[in-house]
Design brief:
324 residues, Rossmann fold, UDP-galactose 4-epimerase, domain 1, 7-stranded parallel β-sheet, 10 helices, binds uridine-5'-diphosphate-4-deoxy-4-fluoro-alpha-D-galactose
Length: 324
């Protein structure tokens, strides 16, 4: 039996793929390579194709024994989703529905879904628990919430079981530096800081300095990508053994402002990072910090990597990727 990882050539999916293989699982990766990189899939079987192509997906399922599907094949830029929502709804919702059809056509009913803390919107209470109201403020968060709701209905009506993970800010890289964060173009804060440290940009644009936070910049909860990978394994195993759908927030329970991240990254890289204060980016909530209590008690999961670990593994990977 294999685990099918769709979107396994992307940032989080490629780390989960490596992690599962190291833990003794057989994996099959499906990715259309519109964002992901073939070089990031170095473990398991690789098939290039689109989850929105029902014939292709039926063929993937009918010719293999797939026990569970992990779904990472989504567009995930908050800012971009505000500018091009149609692409986000088509890719993140419509194609996910086709993927679920192909699973059900082939009798596969264990689904692990990458959702996001962006599905909560502005935090009413910190840390954000699984009971927090979900009221997204950007199209990206909405696309994920739509699928979360749909999964509840599919569970009741069709017996499709799911494990939903709402990630806070994924960060860091494989400590063995074989894979890491690789977006084109890059928009995420930590790699943008590295690009600035190595002269690709004049300065890091700080999006908004008038937020209701201690230093006026947005606060996020940065979680190492391997901690996310471990949670996926534990969540999948629990889903398969209990047959009960559930959902978990995956964060560290600690927030860092944009300015704090720039300071720490400056120390890790040993470089002075220039900054420029610009207006807020649309769609950004001021503070997102996750509670990890539910995942800790039910999955026996606890983040192992610190923020410094995340930034230093990401820096090592960045230097390797850029051949510096
Ligand atoms: N930021 C800057 N300057 C930049 C880039 C980012 O100030 O050049 C700020 C953003 O405004 C935000 C914070 O840094 O406040 C983090 O931004 P990222 O772009 O690194 O990450 P996001 O929080 O926007 O999004 C990421 C994932 C989403 C996920 C979200 C959860 O890309 O998929 O984390 O918070 F939903």
């Amino acid at each position: 039996m294999s685990i099918l990882i769709v979107g396994g050539a992307g940032y989080i999916g490629s780390h989960v793929n490596k992690y599962l293989n190291r833990e003794g699982y057989d994996t099959v990766v499906v990715d259309n390579l519109c964002k992901g990189h073939r070089e990031s899939v170095r473990w398991g079987e690789f098939l290039q194709g689109d989850i929105g192509d029902i014939d292709f997906m039926n063929e993937v399922f009918s010719s293999r024994r797939i026990e569970a599907v992990m779904h990472f094949a989504a567009f995930a830029y908050v800012g971009e989703s505000v500018i091009m929502p149609a692409e986000y709804y088509k890719n993140n919702v419509v194609k996910t529905m086709t993927l679920l059809d192909s699973m059900m056509n082939n009798g596969v009913n264990n689904f692990i879904f990458s959702s996001t803390c962006a599905a909560f919107g502005e935090a009413v209470e910190i840390p954000i628990t699984e009971f927090h109201v979900q009221n997204p403020i950007n199209p990206y968060g909405f696309t994920k919430l739509v699928v979360e709701r749909l999964l509840k209905d599919y569970d009741r009506a069709y017996g499709l079981r799911s494990c939903i993970f709402r990630y806070f800010n994924a960060s860091g890289a494989d400590p063995e530096t074989e894979i890491g964060e690789w977006h084109e173009p890059e928009t995420h804060l930590i790699p943008i800081i590295f690009e600035t440290a190595t002269g690709k940009h004049q300065a890091v644009n700080i999006f908004g300095t008038d937020y209701p936070t201690t230093d006026g910049t947005c606060v996020r909860d940065y979680i190492h990508v391997y901690d996310l990978a471990e949670a996926h394994k534990l969540g999948m195993e629990r889903l398969i053994s209990t047959g009960i759908s559930d959902h978990y927030n995956l964060g560290c329970g600690k927030g860092f402002s944009v300015r704090e991240i720039i300071d720490i990254a400056g120390k890790v890289t040993g470089k002075a990072i220039k900054t420029s204060e610009v207006k807020r980016r649309e769609g950004d909530p001021p503070v997102l910090i996750g509670s990890m209590q539910k995942a800790e008690s039910l999955l026996k999961w606890k983040p192992q990597f610190s923020l410094e670990d995340s930034i230093s593994t990401a820096w090592k990977w960045y230097l390797k990727k850029e051949k510096i």
